[in-house]
Amino acid sequence: MAGSKTRHYGSGTFDKGLDVLESLERAPEPLRIHDIAQLTSLDRAAVFRLLCTLEDRGYIERLADKRYRAKNRKRMPRVSYIAPLTGNPFREEVTRSLQRAAANSGLQLELVDTGDIELPRDQIDAVLRSGAEAVILFQRRGSLAHLLADRFLQEQIPLISVETPIAGALYFGGNNYRAGLLAGEALGTFARRQWQGNFDKLVLLESSLSAAATMARLTGTVEGLNTTLNIDASTRVIHVDGLASVETSRAACLRVLKSLPRRSKVLISCFNDLSAMGAVQAARALGIADQVAIVGQNGTAEARAELALTSSPLIATVAYFPERYGEELLKLAATVIAHQKTPLAVYVDHILLNRTNLRRYYPRASASSLK
């Protein structure tokens, strides 16, 4: 039955037996015991016992020359999704969408949770042994994404990288510059309509943890603002590192906003919606929500609920629709596994969500869901 599972990295006999069986299934020719022992990192005695069991159950056969091979049996292609599965709303929605899509995909989806592990060597080794025919990688730290990707590319396993462009991998995710343009245009339009085109500072709430490519969102913001107001906003920019978290972004924005002259009009473009929620909290804490306009990125449920508040300084968020990622990613993985032609990059749709169109895309959006 198609579906998904989360890997629990046990070392039981069953897991070892699968390693032996899958080594034989992947091998282009029959293998001897010492070959299997090398491939699985098991000792020869353990390999022999496992081979006997597999042979008795009809999964493999022993040839006259004492080599072993797997018998033909239908096996669903395996796809490994490697990411922190929890920790922020966007990633959690991507995980749920993959789990939903896996049920009818004809693929076996393995969820590998790297969490906050600095370097998940054991998980990656397990994926390599499992016989994954394609890997979907979604890592928030750009440096780790490149390091992990290199392991799979060296093994010639097709790789789909979510949100981080990597040489040799198929990119899936946002067009970050275009998403930034939407944010900048929204801020510019607000300033023109509400403040006669005048503002004092543009705060770019960034994240040093993220890949450089995703920072193009903020580059796009400046260009979108310049184009909309026909100005050069670069002289009014303040760069702030919010580390893509609510708490750090709140503290950073509090420091910046307190340092500005009273009644300053401030535009804030945020790396993601977590940063945006931190900025919202800072503006409210200082009682200056009417002097601040904030745009987020991702269109998460929390941001949508905030948008439903007419008094909120959050005026928009650029939606990426992570609830749709699962189906598209698994279709892409199936195409790659089948060796069919694919584009080098697949960009998701972006929509600027604001109070005018929020319920068109999310009819159930409500401020009551705010925690």
TrEMBL record:
Coiled coil: none annotated. CDD domains: PBP1_ABC_sugar_binding-like. It holds the Pfam family HTH_IclR. It is found in: Cell envelope. GO terms for cellular component: cell envelope. InterPro entries: Peripla_BP_I (IPR028082), SBP_2_dom (IPR025997), Tscrpt_reg_IclR_N (IPR005471), WH-like_DNA-bd_sf (IPR036388), WH_DNA-bd_sf (IPR036390). Residues 11-72 form the HTH iclR-type domain. Keywords: Signal. One of its GO terms (molecular function) is DNA binding. GO terms for biological process: regulation of DNA-templated transcription. Belongs to the bacterial solute-binding protein 2 family. This is Ribose transport system substrate-binding protein. It comes from Terriglobus roseus.
